[in-house]
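Researcher: Let's walk through a ligand-bound prediction step by step. First, I give you the protein sequence. Second, the SMILES string for pyridoxal-5'-phosphate. Third, you return the three-dimensional complex as structure tokens. Ready?
Model: Ready.
Researcher: Here are steps one and two:
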Amino acid sequence: MKKNIPFFSIERQYTQNKKTFLKALTNVLDSQNFIGGTFVQKFETNFSSYVKSKYAISCNSGTDALWLALKALNLQKNSIVLTTPFSFIASSSEIVAHKAHPVFIDIDETTFNIDPQKIEIWIKKEAEFINSQEKLIHKKTGFPVAGILFVDIFGQCTNYKAIKEISNKYNLWLIEDACQAVGAQTNDGKSAGTLANISCFSFYPTKNLGAFGDGGCCTTNNKYLAEQMIQLRNHGRKSHYNYIQHGINSRLDGIQAAILDKKLKLLDHFNDQRINIAQTYNQQLKGIDFIKTPKTINGKHVYHQYCIQLTNQILRDQLIQELSNHKINTNIYYPKTLDQIDFLNTHPQLKNVCPIAQNLTKTTLALPIWPELEKEEVEYICQKIKEVAQKLQISTVYFQKTNSCKGKINE
Ligand SMILES: Cc1ncc(COP(=O)(O)O)c(C=O)c1O
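Model: Step three, the predicted complex:
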């Protein structure tokens, strides 16, 4: 195969559905309904019924969705939010945007999602109740612990039941960052987008449900929170020229809504194609000594990313280089954990080191997984990985025998 295999492409999806998309665009242009209006309302209705959530409040991006959710839950300055270190920057930066403190709790090594057990260990060690079981306070700083923000990373739902138990026990709200998980389900058949007080989605073009620009959405079953977010996304406006709180301008536009509505009908098909690709990778790559394929233990995984783990960083970086020589593009999610980013560490007494997440930054590798990737392309990628694996295995044995870089290979 001579051609380049991009890490991600939306070109084929566009070509295959061009007529549908152009018709949707023409409808918006003809109606001149650019902001709010029928296309946005229709998409919100269809999206809330897809997710099986009572309310869907669309906005300008996943980042804004997180900002709106935190504001609607009344996150105050100097409050603590327990969250994952293994995510895109926005799941923590929006906590900091509210002048609150993210505290990073390490992840589960199988799912890469926040580990509920470690949340409770942190609470028991670091926090205590005041006001007869009502308010949880961080002992050293006196800051209140407000809630937990978990992320369904790479498209697999978090173990929400365990987290919900903790939130009930300690009186904490929950936000689900489902930006990578639209269409995913839990073991008991609940949809991503219904696992917390508020859930947040991104429609960035490369997401499983991607717009032709930026877009986002919050879902909730709570009427009060929905009303709050409707106000907050529109400058805190309650009614015509009646502004009652500080909000932002974060509106999904008609063009994005119309495209998203068309793509929503295709979403399960797109996700099934991702799942098929993941299954081929799983089958073909099993048995390679130093590669661990991802495990699905929490229901339906929709593979926003397919990340393998290598035994160590040297092998990971060699594999990247060798695949790139064959024009196969890969990516690292994430090269840095959020607990390693200075401005997210907002208070010295809240620093919590996350070794499992940090180790992943050195060993994980994301392979191409986009719905229109063809079977022969996936098989070609697998074949090249197997060839490279054999080559690397031989050189590993050689290095170990000659002892020339034994320490490095095994570190
Ligand atoms: C986990 C996660 N949270 C939040 C976001 C932010 O979404 P957006 O890029 O739409 O602002 C993303 C998108 O990259 C994400 O992957």
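Researcher: And what stands out?
Model: Residues 11-263 form a domain with the Aspartate Aminotransferase; domain 2 fold (CATH 3.40.640.10). The pocket of pyridoxal-5'-phosphate is lined by residues 61-63, 87-88, 90-91, 151, 177, 179-180, 202, 204, 214, 216 (CB under 6 Å).
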